[in-house]
Amino acid sequence: MTGHGATKERGRQRKRGSTAFVLGGGGLLGAGEVGMLHGLLDAGIAPDLVVGTSVGAINGAAIAAEPTLEAIARLTDVWSNLAERGVYSGGALRRVQHFARTRTHAHPNEPLRQLLAEQFGDARIEDLAVPFQCVAASIERAAEHWFVDGPVVDAVLASSAVPGVLPPVLLGGEHFLDGGLVNSIPVGRAIALGAQRVFVLQVGRIDRPLQAPTRPWEVAVVAFEIARRHRFARDMAEIPDGVDVHVLPTGADETPRYADRSALRYRDFTKVTTRIEQAHTATRAYLADTAERTG
Predict the structure, then answer these.
(1) How many CB atoms lie within 10 A of CB 123?
(2) Using N-to-C axis directions, what is the helix angle for 31-42 and 55-65, rounded to 10°?
(3) pTM (2 decimals)?
(4) d(CA 146, CA 164)
(5) 262 three-class SS
(6) E-assigned strands of the chain?
(7) What pLDDT was estimated at residue 260?
C-alpha cells in the first residue's frame, strides 16, 4: 500500500499526529537537521509523526526508527564520516565519464543505497517506532508521491534522487526523482495528517535572498528556489487556527547568497560538523526562549 489511497494508514497517523517533525530537503545543508533533532530531544520534545523530503527523508527515517539521543549520536557519526563513504565519490573526470555513459546523472546510487541499508536494513515504514512518510516526484505522473509503507530504503532512496546527480529510482514500474521537486518542506502534509504542533526543520535556504540569475549555472538554481519557496510560503499562509508551527533556526553564520557556484558544491563535506553544532545550539536557545515566553 503506497500513495494517496492509504486510508487506514492515514487514520492511524491522524490519531497519533499531535506533534510532527517536518524535515525539508537541501543536500549537505541537511546536516543542520541533525542538530535540530538533537535540540528537540534535549528539550524533551518527541514526534508523533515524521514527514520528510530528500535529505530530510534520510534524517526523518532515522528519528522515526528510534527517537532517542543514542540514535542522534549514531546519525551524527554517519554525517561526520560521509566523505569516507563515497556517496558522491570520484574526481571530475570520473564524474564526466559517468555522465557521458549514462547521459542522465553524475553518480551511481549504489553507495547511498548501501549506506541506507546499513542504517535501516530491511525495515518497513509501517513498522517504524513513529509514523513516517516521505515524498518523491513521479516522472510518469508528474506528481508528488507519498510513501506510507513498504521498504524504508527504497522510499528514502527515491525521495533523495537529486536530478542530474543520482539516477531516478524505479519502483513498481514507476520512476521517481527527488521529493524537493514537488514538496521541499512538507508542512501542509503534516497538518493534513492531523498535526497540531509542527516543528519545521529546514536548512536555511528560505532565508537567503534571491537575485536574478546572471550566469548559466544560476538559472536552474534560482528557478528551483522560486518553486520550492512558493510552495512553502503557501503552506505557511494556509495554516489553520489552532495549529502551532515552529520554524527552527539553523544558527548558520554563512553569508546567504546565490551569486556564486557554492550552491552547486554538493560534495563539500567540510562544514558538516559545524552545521550540526550550530543548529543544535540555535535550536536549544529557540526552544528555551519559546518556553519562557509561553510558560
Answers:
(1) 16
(2) 30
(3) 0.86
(4) 22
(5) helix
(6) 19-23, 49-53, 132-138, 143-147, 169-171, 174-177, 197-201, 244-247
(7) 43
**Choice between 166 and 85, residue whose per-residue pLDDT is larger:** 166
What are the grid coordinates assigned to 118, written together? 546499513
Nearest-angstrom CA–CA distance, 174 and 61: 22
Instruction: Count Cα neighbours of 249 within 13 Å in the Cβ-side half-sphere.
Output: 16
Closest CA to 133 of 45, 234, 53: 53
254 beta partners? none
Residues contacting 155, CB < 8 A, separation 6+: 57, 61, 125, 134, 136, 147
Rounded distance, CA 52 to CA 225, Å? 18
Cell output for 5: 489511497
Residue 32 CA to residue 12 CA, distance in Å, equals 30
Contact 13, 49 (CB under 8 A): yes
CA distance 58 to 118: 12
**Could you tell me which residues come within 8 angstroms of residue 103 by beta carbon, excluding any fewer than 6 positions away?**
none
Whole-angstrom distance, CA of residue 268 vs CA of residue 257? 17
Contacts of 248 by beta carbon, 8 Å cutoff, 6+ apart: 36, 39, 40, 199, 200, 201, 202, 279, 282, 283, 286
Q: Measuring CA to CA, which residue among 23, 27, 3 is closest to residue 164?
A: 27
Cβ burial of 116 (10 Å; 0-12, 13-18, 19+) is buried
Mean pLDDT, residues 269-295 taken together: 90
In the numeric block, which cell numbers belong to residue 152? Answer: 524504508
Mean of per-residue pLDDT scores for the chain:
85
Q: What is the pLDDT of residue 86?
A: 59
* Residue in 59, 52, 51, 64 with CA at minimum distance from that of residue 75: 59
Instruction: Name the residue among 105, 108, 132 with its Cα closest to residue 120.
Output: 132
